Amino acid sequence: MPNLSEFRAAERQLAQQLSQLETMKQDVGLQQEMAFNDKLHALMGDYGYSPATVLAILESAQE
Fold this sequence. Notes:
Helices cover 84% and strands 0% of the residues. The protein has three helices and no strands.
């Protein structure tokens, strides 16, 4: 069973990770990447394409 000091250490670590997460959420590059990912998945759903199909299309375009 964890003792109080282990609990406090875990609590501090969680607070640090939550702070890091909030900082990352403010990153414009990450926001753009997340928006692209959301739009890509929406398009894949609209056309019924799987990730493997999209990858195959992209790979064939490089040839």
